[in-house]
User: Fold this.
Amino acid sequence: MKKVSIWLVCCGYLFITACNSSNQNKTMNSDTLTAVGLPDKKAYQETLAGKTVDLFTLKNKNNVQVAITNYGGAIVSALVPDKNGELTDVILGYKDLKGYQDGKSYFGALIGRYGNRIGKAKFSIDGKEYKLDANDGPNSLHGGKSGFNTKVFDAKQIDDQTLELTYNSPDGEGGYPGNVHAKVVYTLGDDNGLKIDYTATTDKTTVLNLTNHAYFNLSGEGSETINDHLLQINADAITAVDSTLIPTGVMQPVAGTAFDFRKPTTIGDRVDAAEEQIKMGGGYDHNFVLTKADGMRAAAVVTSPKTGIVLEVLTVEPGIQFYGGNFLNGQDHNGKGGKAYAKRSGFCLETQHFPDSPNKPAFPTTLVKAGEQYHTTTIYKFSVSK
Ligand code: BGC
Assistant:
């Protein structure tokens, strides 16, 4: 009798444990599917205009994994360890290629020919005026309506940690002069840094400002907000903007304003401050003038207090666009984890030359002459706070 009841107790215990663990799995799968894996490769495989679109995976020795599609060269996922060693997907993205084709928010994409805005969608080189696509009120944003984010790049996976993407942008594309040959190499280092190296050549003098438009949420994509993240930006000034987000030409010191991130500060603390520049951007949507340096240097550091995940941005660029996801509106229901991306549920740190530089002679130049080589590098490096 005693043996039978011990046996029954054991069976009951095993049954309850099994139920609990299967519920746990269910929670992980339905709630945070992408927190434990990459999206289905097949959902990105298609032939578009004779070119093959696919999803490529980079993986390093720490099991960090980054998925990139050659449609727009977009970073689709980045699985990085949190403070408990659990892999977390910190990139906002779509679960299939269609999401990227229909999307209006440039998720993860390569941006060309010109990151951010050019005022009145025009500029001149040597007295000749070039008219661009006006796709943001009177201005041109991110290369116009068919920027690099909409192009199928030729892809070559060099090894487990390196993907090379190339694109030939014909003379006149989006209104820009010159046949531009652009090459972007993504390399995932064993230091958990994702390096993005951009080179380009042109056969006519043109302007170029290439960047990447990844949206991050270091608490995991699909988490409600980024306003609890701590942000530090090594910048003493922003390029102040008008109501159409075109720089006025004024370098506004950050001291004493909502833009002072010289020490780590919670993003949400001042995001709705009663300041003119915050009103212009509907929150943070500004180019920060990075502290000058020769070569690569730390530009920004962001930390999620929930996961402890830290993102460090290093670049050779003079500026960084801190965009706090003000225009996300919950309509992007096609997110990888099945969750809508609401206002301020992702942030971008787009390394760049300043917006509207082609019309602002006092800004660092974005001109690239025929035969010259354009080159820029940015690293998004992940770690955990101790
Ligand atoms: C711009 C925002 C824009 C966003 C998505 C950012 O780089 O600064 O104003 O809404 O990209 O298009």
User: Anything to note?
Assistant: The helical segments are 2-31, 33-36, 97-102, 276-281. DSSP finds four helices and 28 strands in the chain. Residues 2-31 form the longest helix (30 residues). The chain has one domain: 43-384.
